[in-house]
Design goal:
The protein is of the alpha+beta class. It is built from 8 helices and 8 strands, in the order ααααββββαββαββαα. Helix 1 runs antiparallel to helix 2 and helix 6 crosses helix 7. The longest helix is centred in the first third of the chain and has 49 residues.
Length: 283
Amino acid sequence: MVTYMEFNAAAIPSIIVNYGMQLVAAVATLVIGLYLVKFVIRLITKTFEKSEIDTSLKTFLTSMVSILLRVMVYITALGMLGVEMTSFIAILAAAGLAVGMALSGTLQNFAGGVMILLFKPYKVGNYIEAQGYEGTVKEIQIFVTVLTTSDNKTVLIPNGLLANDAMINYSTQSTRRVDWAFGIAYGDDLDKAYDVLNRLIAADDRIMQEPKPFMAVAELGDSSVNIAVRVWVNASDYGKVKFKMNEEVYRTFDNEGLSIPNPQLDVHIQQTNANQNKLRKKE
């Protein structure tokens, strides 16, 4: 018993030194680590302030990064004190995997929202078409994008679909091309149709003269000669010009003696000689 007490007494200084060194190292790691976390968070915050990322996303990402970095610092400090962290980390990993699998769709939409807000394929106020819907972007939330359609419906589209599927953004370019196909009847004067269309185009100040308007016979259809007309306008004038020209062509073609034919079918009846003879005998 005396020997055992002497052994412990002799070992106490070394134990104190060893654990003291571990404690000092752990405290130093904790202090320095938390200071570095604050430095990184300040750097990230300044970077976000210079960018055009949505405010809600800035706050969320900053908080998430801060929590993750702090957890890493605490785990490292506890490990330096000799606390067994392997089992603890394994439990956290398993729990994270289970939660991730249960929320896979939600996490995909979250990741899609982050990608949209970072790379900006569209922004609030843009007019887009995606997933069979088109409308003006009203909000870009973390999980969904909110559209307002032209007939004032609200459509929520998951961000995961928008980030990984095709989408048309009509607002990225300042100009757009308007395409029409106007039909005239066979036998109508083609040059006169060109002249009428050119006059209508020149009368609309919203239509650009550069690039020059284009028109040509696009198709000899079953019932009409179809003329393709293409002009360039400011993107904001696209719908107004397109609908107005349709009205003007309908009114003007009729006054100018040009027909807009309806679909028609010519039926030719042929009679055999025997049938003709029978009809003559009856007469």
